[in-house]
Every structure is written in structure tokens, then in C-alpha cells.
Amino acid sequence: MSLNIFWFLPTHGDGHYLASDESARVVDHAYLQQIAQAADHLGFGGVLIPTGRSCEDSWLVASSLIPVTRRLRFLVALRPGVVSPTLAARQAATLDRLSNGRALFNLVTGGNPDELAAEGVFLNHDERYEASAEFTRVWRRLLSGEQVDFEGKHIKVKGAKLLYPPVQQPYPPLYFGGSSDAAQDLAAEQVDLYLTWGEPPELVKEKLAQVREKAAALGRTVRFGIRLHVIVRETNEEAWQAADRLISRLDDETLAKAQESLNRFDSVGQRRMAQLHNGKRENLEISPNLWAGIGLVRSGAGTALVGDPQTVALRIKEYASLGIDTFVLSGYPHLEEAWRVGELLFPLLDVAVPETPAQRRLSAQGEIIGNEFVPHKTAQAQRDNR
């Protein structure tokens, strides 16, 4: 099975040490462009662009990188509760059209109550997933060319439609990650690829089996991916030294503050990440070559594969044997680590290097007359044939 290997754009900052200003790197557009172009050149399938108040806006970042890349795909965040599904569908179709079909979307329900409250979202955990499910049903139908009337508990739209369709049909692929029962139910019903964070293989196997079973009960199949950091060096000794160096500036006060903040999350996935290290620096190798040091201070993906190229490739293949075909990787600093992964790791893996998509000619859609959209006959015929 060929593997889709994605990289990461650090729009929240980058550097050589976690939780330290020492050797911190300013992340401006020029730097993001360097990372994106390196990933594009090396053959990464795409880049995950993070979301949240600590990050630059993922949609604007993706849009700005379209003209300076050739084949790289952009995995950007959909935020139910923060934006309407109708607006999100319009934005998604636009990004897909302008990028010539290189847009991917990551449904992010959110798990930080403080950040959600600042965005005006005051739903509890289960209510957020109810709202996310309603959002996604409307979003998918609109992008698939339907006119949508929908009245749910959290979302209501009437006569919603999308005038400019996406390039990818029936809609650009939808990614999603979540560990709770509610999240798994949503994934089984609606998403194309389910992402897990980098837990030990036996825990990942259990989680994937649950989602696979729920999807099968609905007559669906779901692809699987995993989100991991990676620290690969020419020798195992060098790799573990690099892991230790990454958290070498982390003092006890900063660690305590980080854990206090992370403990306020109501995310099941975040709780599972925290249980891997329990806030302690000791015994951070929680599974062979799987290191939990990043999760001491960072939310979300908190584990890294550490080792020489042969060892890291072996661990990736172990995850692939569980049915995972997509690996979303990252490493500090992200520019240098992208090159290390491409040069040291890619030759040992069957990497699905994307082709440069052929430019697709977009047809005229119609005109606005008064306040009504009147489609051109050719555009209407195309929609009728979809």
C-alpha cells in the first residue's frame, strides 16, 4: 500500500526548543513559503495547517501558498459553531477552484473551553458534536450540488445552494479526528478519512476497529490516518539526543503551567494524550521508539517517532499494517526536519508522490440579474448532468 505522507505548517511558531524563546524562529510568509515549497519539492502529499487563536488563519495561509506550489494539497480547518455551513461550503469551493483541486478539509470541533468561549461557542462536549454533525450534513450536501433546506437542533438553513461548484466531485475529501463515542459516530457517518493521534499501536488498533465497525453498520468504509511528530537521524543515538534537546529548556514552572492549562480541556483525545506521560518527564518512551515529550507542553498530537531511518520506517509500517494510509508528520524546526524526512525516510517507504494536477478550465456560471442568479445554459447543463 502506497502511503500518503503529509507535512505541517507551523503557523503558531517554530524553533529548536519547546517552551523557550531561545533560538525561536519568526514565522512569516517567507518562512511558510520555504516550508511549503520544500514539502512540494520533496513529494509530500500535502500540508496540515493548524487552527486556533494561537495560529495564523489557515484559510488565508493556504490561499497565499497556491501560486508558489505545484502539487501540494492544503488541509485546512472547518470550524462548526464558529462559521455557518453555507459560508464554509462557499469558501471550500472557492479554495478548491482556485487551487485546481488541491483543497482538503479537516473538521475541528474543538476541545478547549476557554478558546471556544472566546469564539462565542458555549456548547458542552456532546452538544458540540451534535452541532458538528448538523454542520457537516449541510456542508456536504451543498458541495455535492444540492439545494438544502435543513432544520436541526443547532442549525437551520432554507434554500441554501452553492453557485460555484468545487473541482473535486462530489466534494473535496473531509478529514476528522476525535476519540469520544460521539466523535466516532460522526466519523462513521460522514467523513472520508479518520485521523488518530499517535498513541501506541495497540491503542490505535482498538480505536480504528471501533470506527471501522460503526461505519460498516452504516454501509460505509472510512480511510484512516495518523498525526505524529518525527525525529529521524542517521543513528538512534543521535535521534534520542535530539529528542532530549528539544525539551532541554523546559523548566518545572513552565511544565506545571502547561499541564494546568491542558487539564482544562474536555477533549477525550487530549485526555488520552495526557495519560501517556501523566505530566512527568520520566519514562517518556511509551512504546518502542514512540516518545511523549512534546505532549508535556503542547495540546493535540504529543508523540514523536524517534530513531534512525530504518527504525522509524519500521514503526510507520507497523501503523500502516493496521490500515492507516495517511501519515501527517511534523518536526522541529519544520524546514530542516522536512528535508531530513524526505532524504532519510522517504527512500525506505512506498510514498505516494502526487502528480501536478492538469489545469482544469472553469466554465462561466451565470450572471446576477436584479438579485437573482441566472445560470448560463452550458453551466446549467453541467449541473443537470452531475
How would the blueprint of this fold be written?
Layout: E1 4-8, E2 14-15, E3 24-25, H1 29-42, E4 46-48, H2 58-65, E5 73-78, H3 85-98, E6 103-107, H4 113-118, H5 125-143, E7 148-151, E8 156-160, E9 174-177, H6 181-190, E10 193-197, H7 201-217, E11 223-232, H8 236-246, H9 252-262, H10 268-275, E12 285-287, E13 290-291, E14 304-307, H11 309-320, E15 324-330, H12 334-345, E16 366-369, E17 372-375, H13 377-384
Parallel strand pairs: 1-4, 1-15, 4-5, 5-6, 6-9, 9-10, 10-11, 11-14, 11-15
Antiparallel strand pairs: 2-3, 7-8, 12-13, 13-14, 16-17
Helix pairs in contact: 1-12, 3-5, 5-6, 6-7
Number of domains: 1
The DSSP helix count reads 13
Shape: globular
Q: Helical residue percent?
A: 25-40%
- Cα separation of the termini: 31 Å
Give the C-level CATH assignment. Answer: Alpha Beta
State the CATH topology.
TIM Barrel
Q: Rg to the nearest angstrom?
A: 21 Å
Q: From the helix content, strand content and strand pairing, which structural class follows?
A: alpha/beta
Strand content: 15-25%
Spell the H/E element sequence: EEEHEHEHEHHEEEHEHEHHHEEEHEHEEH
- The CATH superfamily is known as Luciferase-like domain
Count every beta strand, where a strand is a DSSP E run of 2 or more residues. Answer: 17
> What low-confidence regions span 5 or more consecutive residues with pLDDT below 50?
none
Q: What is the annotated CATH architecture? A: Alpha-Beta Barrel
Q: If you average the pLDDT, what whole number results?
A: 94
Strand order, sheet with most strands? 1-4-5-6-9-10-11-15
Largest sheet: 8 strands, parallel, barrel
GO biological process, one term: alkanesulfonate catabolic process
Protein name: Alkanesulfonate monooxygenase
Domain Luciferase-like: 4-325
Organism: Mangrovibacter phragmitis
